[in-house]
Design brief:
The protein is an alpha+beta fold and 78 residues long. Helices cover 42% and strands 22% of the residues. The chain has three helices and three strands; from the N terminus they run H-E-E-H-H-E. It has a three-stranded mixed sheet. The longest helix has 20 residues. It is globular.
Amino acid sequence: MAYTNEMKRAARSIDPPANFYVDIIDNDNFLSVRASEDVFMRLDDYGKRKAVEYMARLKKALEDNGAIVLLVREGGKA
């Protein structure tokens, strides 16, 4: 599977909440939408809810364009 131009357009059409971002990684057979736990934890409660909503909308938009999507988080303190 490739991260197609249609998928890129769909992803860019959804605005992330302030001070939040994700990485979209093409893993050949599926896409990973990776969020940093450190960035997420710095958000206030409202921002965290908006970040979760954003990731759900992004996942749906990518899936609507043919992708298999896995939502993952990166790191944080152990």
